[in-house]
Amino acid sequence: MQAEINTVQPPIVQPRPNLGRLRFMKEVISTLVFGIAVFTLLQLAIPQSMVQGRSMQPTFFDGQRLLISRLNYLFDDPDYGDIIVFNSPSPRTDDEPPLIKRVIGLPGDIIEIIDRQVYRNGQLLAEDGYILETCSISDCSDDLWELDVDEYFVMGDNRNHSNDSRSFGPVARDLIIGEAIFRFWPLNTFGSVHQYHYD
Hints:
16% of the residues lie in helices and 27% in strands. By secondary structure, it is α+β, with helices and mostly antiparallel strands. It has one domain: Umud Fragment, subunit A. Strands 1, 2, 3, 4, 9, 10, 11 and 12 form an 8-stranded antiparallel β-sheet that branches. It has a 4-stranded antiparallel β-sheet with strand order 7-6-5-8, with no helix packed on it. The longest helix has 27 residues.
């Protein structure tokens, strides 16, 4: 008799899904979503601003890029010497970019310019640390402003070349975007913004 030979076919093995690849793709997608969320939150909390013009010389120069903190004023208010970014109370155009100036007066203060010098509540301000030059007669004519409960008086450090509260008046609290806290461009100016806080 002829022997029968039974050939047993091996079972068909289904390829296993590549769990390592799936896990890697999930990690990549999660990281991207997290990165986008963090970037969006940072843009909301710490927007960027570019200095335009020479009104804040010698503190800032045209073309410098700054980080602006919205968080600083969520639980506190601007203080003397803060450098703030705000929307103009009287914009010249519909798309006028935000302005950047130094806070000179707080709500309730009386700001005066007498003989080209700035007085707050009758006291002469010591401003030698940040202004570029002595204000000219034409740019600092004698005047007086009484600030309301939500108003701030702001001036550029380059007094002879600044559009500020001398021309458009006090700035309302709700127009203030945030405080300039850091320079990041150009790299040779990289660093935190020095604040002159005084009483």
